[in-house]
Amino acid sequence: MVSENLIGFIYKENSSQAMKLVNSIIEDFALKNNSWVLSSPELHVDNEQLKETALIIVAGGDGTILKIAGVSAVHSIPIVGINLGRVGFMTEIEPEEIKSKLSKYLCLETRLEKRMMLEVNISGNEKSGLHALNDVVISHSVVGNLIDLSIKVDDVFIDKYRADGVIIASPTGSTAYSFSAGGPIMFPEAKNILIQPLVPHMKIGRAMVISGESTVEVGIENANQAIMTVDGKQYETPVTQNNQVTVCKSPYIATFLREKDPKAFYKDLFEFLSN
User: Which of 28, 62, 164, 268 is catalytic?
Assistant: First the structure.
């Protein structure tokens, strides 16, 4: 077991089930003296205890992991997720498996799975550098209105279309909103970027998978204001026609502890699609 470092516990906000589960793990595995506990909104990149943390255990679903993945990536701390949600593409352990399996993760005796993240920048806003594990979505600020968008990849014009919006997704994000919009699924450890138009008007609107080393540039052509969401969280400043949104590979990597073989992703995917 990791003895000289801290084990961090994150639980789903407002979930008594998740909080009770975390407390029982700390008691059962005698972790009271080398652990800390926070709800997902309480974790910030400048939390002092992160400097001494070797592992973060998340009690929740994929949504809870998304909320803290950026912070863990900045500090290069691996995550192991305990699935309390409906979809568990990022989680690793079911609650009934904790007693039999968790010790391996506490001892870091599993493989490291590294997942590419995205970096988002908005021209004219030096503080806009954000990082996403799943996706970046740009759409009209008025629900139901179409937006005219132009897309460039590595400074080469690719397409222009009127649509509900566009999704720029990582391989991890390919099983999220992009998948619901008809996009392809990518292997989670792949190094690619997915461009998925949202219901383009009078166009087929095929998705495009590009190199993870490329940079996507999105221009807003006709909307006074567009909104941008990063991993489901709306960016606080509206995006206008004067802004260009660029998305590229983040310097940070989200790391997960895995016992399963990488090919287990396809089995889990099949079971998900069959339900």
Answer: 62
